[in-house]
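Researcher: Go.
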Amino acid sequence: MVRTLSDASSLFGKERYKKALEKLDKAEKLAEKTKRTDILCRVLLQKGAVMNSMGKPDEGQDLYDKALDIYRTSNLNEQESSVLKHTLSNTFSELAKHFKMADSIENAEKCYLNEIKVYEILLEKDPEDEDSNLEIARVFKAIGDLYEYFKPEKMDPETERQYYEKILDIREKAFEAAS
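Model: Structure:
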């Protein structure tokens, strides 16, 4: 399974998306057969990234949601959970950066919100986890920075007011999460 995932990742890097999906479908079947939910989540994340790259962000989001649902409901051992948490959060963070560079603020924000979901799941499992709150604050700050980065040069006063209210709201959420 790991080799198949690695092959799919290599094909994805070479923009051979259909071949990558074939490999990922194979890995998905193997993960389901062996009941490896940690591997299944990784497969779904890679398939989501492929779909996004193919210009199908809605299908990609569906795959991300499935991965998050599996993570939320799975009973992984501590090491598997840690690896998967790291994989999930890094995937969404990297995708957000990719979309930011591609000037797609909406998709970047969706990725950041998915990253927040990872930490909210951790808080559901352990409400005393201060690190998750700090990570949520960091991600909200990244969303605020995203809006600051994409601020249009010319806006009418009403649009500008709404824009800055959104940034303020996001920054307040970051502050609340860190407190």
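Model: The mean pLDDT is 83.
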